[in-house]
Amino acid sequence: MSFVLECPHCGVREVADFAFGGELSSRPSEAPSLRELSRYNYFRRNVAGVQREWWYHRSGCRTWFQADRDTRTNTVLRVGLPGTLGDAPAMPEAGMGEQLATPAPGKGSAA
Amino acid sequence: MTRLPPQPGERLDRKKTLSFTFDGKPVTALDGDTIGSALYAAGRRTFSRSFKYHRRRGLMCCAGQCPNCMVAVDGAPGVRACTEPVREGARVEHLNASPGLELDAMAVTDVLGGPFTPPGFYYKTFIHPRRLWPVYEWVLRHAAGLGRLPQGQAERSWRTEYRRRHADVLVVGGGHAGLSAALAAAELGADVVLADEGPEAGGRLLWEGGHEQARALTERVREAGVEIICSGAALGHFDGLVPVWQGSTLHQVRASQHVYATGAIEQPLVFAGNDLPGVMLSAGARRLAALYGVRPGTRAVVASTSDRGLLAASALAELGVEVLAVADLRDTPTAAAQALSARGVKVLQGWTVVASRGRRALEGVVLAPVADAQRASAPGSIRRELACDLLLVCGGEAPATALIAQAGGRTAYDPELGHFALSELPPGVWAAGQVAGEGEEQLAAASGERAGLQAAHALGLGDERSRIRSAELGTRLGAALRDAETPAPVLAASAMGKGKAFTCFCEDVTAKDIHRGVQEGYDSIELCKRFTTVTMGPCQGRMCQLSSVRLMSGETGQSLEQIGTTTARPPWSTVPLGALAGRPIEPAKRSAIHPRHRDLGATVKWAGDWRRAYDYGDPEGEAQNVHAAAGLIDVSTLGKLLVRGPQAGEFLDRLYPNRLSNLKPGRVRYGVLTSDAGRIMDDGTIGRIDEDTFYVTTTSSGAGAVEQWFSWWLADWKLDVQLSDVTQALCAVNLAGPRAREILAQLTDADCSPEAFAYLDSRQARVAGVGALLMRIGFVGELGYEIHFPAAYGEDVWNAILLAGESAGIRPFGLEPQRILRLQKQHIIVGQDTDSESTPFGAGMPWAVKLDKYEQFIGKWALAHFADAPAETALVGFTVDGGQLPTEGAVVLDQRGGAAGQVTSARRSRQLGRVIGMAWVPSALASDGQSITISDNGAQLSASVLTEPFYDPAGELLRS
Questions:
Q1: C-alpha–C-alpha distance, residues B355 and B789, integer Å
Q2: According to the model, what pLDDT value does residue B197 have?
Q3: Which residues, given as ranges, of chain B have pLDDT below 50?
Q4: What residues in B contact A110, CB-CB < 8 Å?
């Protein structure tokens, strides 16, 4: 993997400057069922297309920001601080075959 | 002496000589020579011994493309003599021949081999008995190969630095087309980098009489602001990143647009003995003569499938080389053929070469009509034998499409051209010159200019005029290509009779090997490649891709389109791994107190990214001294975060499973961080300094990850909290032991009495005159104070404490005694005693989880589940009954003798007089007094479980 990303603070840098935080999603707002919890922790949508995702400028200003990236071409369409990018690209739900009742995964099991 | 009189475009300074050694013998060179040209001029014809059969190999391409002249220079193997400039005093040695290059014992494989050593031979023959494979392998690895790597760091003195270069346009290839492309793009305002393999840009112009034009054009390009990287091989195309290796620098060039003007690679012909020194590619001989003033031979024969070889014949004749005959594989004479005939050179239309003659070097060749060639030495076949010392071959030119293919381009076989040509370019990639089929002199400049304009236009540069110009060039190129003459397709292999006819020179793969590969069932090119290793050598298919596909076609009856080519993979050019690895640097973090540890004789070892004092020579004694008097340890490596703001308490409540918002200012609490899967991520202490300020410490190795984790959730939750990582700004030491209080009291204005400064209290006070944060915590199990203060005063405070404690018997202690001490208390080390599956419940810390907390804290739902479903294994302490020290990682057995857990820590404790440790054991065995069996490298140890601290279980000393 090799491309450049634009940090909203520092500008264009090699991707090796950044840590990847995975696809963007929201944490359940109230107690999920065990199945929902597993999905939140362990399942990802893994789209072949544009997805909104988290990035961390680890070797720079240490800011977390978001990017819309095409996972097929590594083209980064836009970047911004959380909440500034507007509507996220349409993405299918992660899952084990059926739809989730609550909005799906967040940062999951980072450990 | 085989030097020619001074040539008009030569690179030599004939007034200046250099000297180097080849296999210990001195060689004289002219300034500007390559190692190859100097050795050739000195009469050397054998440059290397081949990979498998140890056959003699000599200069063939003179362009760094074939593998035939690889030598070791100053210990670095795999260097191509033909392109490596001579440096004064260089130590050049041959590779892969013993005892010497001229007399190589392993050359016997060439005589015996062949019928007995087909592809796959090693793996079929040396399979039984299996236990002997290491012996076979050792012998085989020494028999075949391309040189020896230096063993010691001292021998590996060369090194490479990385350089990042962002540009608008990268042009790869500095021939006529590449230079024109760079100029066109730069003149429209683009930031252009041009990389060329050779020591100067100009490509074919340099040795085909256009050197003045090439040098003038290069100058214009440079003046237009283009950065020209010479002697820079492009290694691959990785998602738009092209590494260009230039000796001691690896340029990582990232451009928006790529122009590939990589030219074409002249192909050898496949015939018996086509590798004998003296058989040379036509352009190789021309380079040798034009650039280095070396006469390639005296009596030459030429075999060619295109005008390129015929023009070389003329050029050699001009230099006074006697051209005995030219075998033109095409039936009809072209203008070039007529010109040769006119000057009295014998041109045989429709003839080819079928064999070479000679032992040490070429002594003669056998020619035959193309139609007759495949019939081997059938009776009545026409043959003509000529004595000569040079054979020029030209089997057409294959476009160098590998980098474009790596970028996503495609090629297709063009039956009219007889090679694989570009059929599709990916976005942002342009092809110019011969690689695009537009290489003839009159086309190259136009093709390059057009590609340069297209690249600039794609960047949004240019205007109406430049667009019109680009369209005009397109029309002109199209018209020229329609009128172009097409060379005859070349025979796959001539004379499949006696003698080895090589398709792959790198790995000694013959035409017969391809035949055998197909017979064994490897009938697709990708399979045949893996079976025979054709195209897998250092030339990366430059010499063999096309001929092996043609041979496959002949064997299988499939068309070349059907067979296709193998996948183009990096590296496109040979590169030492050391160049990719970059500079051998090992960054280390050191505490500000580190110089003092060295003064005190510390054993310094790696601990994660840190260099730390493991002990000061006596780990058990140091631990003992903490119990008896007092010890001081540098814990500056701990991660330190300031969490500040009106919502700081809420923020920490959301992150930790226990409650922190109710922590009173001046108090400290232990916290374990969990993920949303309920797994332990890190641990540390959290002290509240005032209403809005918390001071969080993390493990040494987890500092970065915790900062990243905190700031991530903060970015998501957008609470009114500021996070500052002060890990590097502050030093921290832990003063511990029964006499710690009296030592500290001498140095601080804080009231250190047990009532005023109790266990888990924190105080801001001066220590030895330095503003500090003090926390009474007890990782090592004795009365202790963790003192955090500005790193600039690291050594001063450390010295002051040791001095103040001298009469009380203070001694510094290192990481190892700290590990003994904390193990006595069963205080876990995250990552040592826990792994990515461990939960606070399994790790025996249910008290660190407050499920009745109001917040939906990270990990709550998973922890609620784990609280109801007890873990299968639990972390417990144990003492070994027999007193043996188990290895960390030893297996804990269940009642049936199966593996059910593992030892995570074990130490001999002098204080307790026992071997103690911690281990994950089945929950059924996780109660006091249970006997467990530890299997350690075949030995079985019996141990007893203890779930409370081995030392001071009630914590009375800690609280004293």
A1: 83
A2: 93
A3: none
A4: 675-676, 681, 709
- CA distance, residue A73 to nearest chain B CA (Å): 8
pLDDT of B154 reads 58
Backbone angles phi, psi at A83, to 5 degrees: 85, 0
Omega of the bond leading into B953 within 30 degrees of 0 (cis)? no
Q: Give percent of chain A above pLDDT 70.
A: 80
Q: Where are the alpha helices (DSSP H) in B631-717?
A: 648-655, 703-717
Length of chain A (residues): 111
Alpha helix (H) residue ranges in B763-814: 794-804
Question: CB contact, 8 Å: A81 with chain B?
Answer: yes
Write out chain B residues lying below 8 Å of A109, CB-based: 675-677, 679
Which residue has tokens 């009495």? B753
Residue A60 above 60 pLDDT?
A: yes
Flag whether residue B724 sits within 8 Å of chain A, measured between CB atoms. Answer: no
Size of interface A-B (CB pairs under 8 A): 78
Nearest residue of B to residue A39, measured between CA atoms:
B677
The predicted pLDDT at position B495 comes to 54
Per-residue pLDDT tens over the stretch B2-24: 899 999 999 999 999 999 999 99
B675 Cβ under 8 Å from any chain A Cβ: yes
Does residue A75 belong to the interface with chain B, where contact is any CB pair within 8 Å?
A: no
Task: Please count the CA atoms within 13 angstroms of the CA of B803 that sit on its side-chain side.
Answer: 8
> What pLDDT does residue B220 have?
98
- What's the first-to-final CA gap in chain A, in angstroms? 23
In this structure, what are the phi and psi dihedrals at residue B724, rounded to the nearest 5 degrees?
Answer: -125, 130
- Distance from the B28 Cα atom to the nearest Cα atom in chain A, whole angstroms: 46
- Which residue of chain B is at minimal alpha-carbon distance from A18? B708
Asked if the Cβ–Cβ distance from A106 to B676 is below 8 Å, we say yes
- Residue partners of B848: CB distance under 8 A and separation at least 6: B657, B658, B670, B671, B672, B840
Report whether B496 contacts B374 (CB < 8 A). yes
pLDDT of residue B896: 87
What distance in Å separates the CA atoms of residue B946 and residue B823, rounded to the nearest whole number? 12
Distance CA A33, CA A96 (A): 14
pLDDT at B416: 81
Q: Please check whether residue B166 touches A, CB under 8 A.
A: yes
Helix, strand or coil for residue B34?
Answer: strand
pLDDT at A111: 38
Does the beta carbon of A8 lie under 8 angstroms from any beta carbon of chain B?
no
- If pLDDT is split at 50, 70 and 90, which confidence band does A99 have? very low
Shortest CA gap B168–chain A (Å): 14
Question: Model-level pTM?
Answer: 0.83
Mutate to test the interface with A, among B163, B707, B716 (most CBs of A within 10 A): B716
Query: What single-letter DSSP state applies at residue B104?
Result: B
User: For chain B, what's the residue count?
Assistant: 960
Q: Which residues of A touch B675 (CB under 8 A)?
A: 108-111
User: What's the CA gap between B708 and B702, in Å, rounded?
Assistant: 10
- pLDDT (0 to 100) of residue B92: 95
Calpha distance B207→B204 (Å, rounded)? 6
A99 CB near a chain B CB, below 8 Å? no
Give the pLDDT confidence score for residue B716 in this predicted structure: 92
Interface TM-score (ipTM) > 0.85: yes
* Residue the block writes with tokens 């374990």: B672
A64 interface with B at CB cutoff 8 Å:
yes
Question: How, if at all, do strands B410-414 and B397-399 pair?
Answer: unpaired
3-class SS of residue B291 = helix
β strands within B227-383, DSSP E: 227-229, 233-234, 241-246, 249-260, 264-266, 279-281, 299-304, 322-328, 347-349, 351-357, 364-369
8 Å CB contact between B4 and B295: yes
pLDDT at B450: 97
Beta-carbon contacts of residue B666 (< 8 Å; ≥ 6 apart): B688, B761, B762, B763
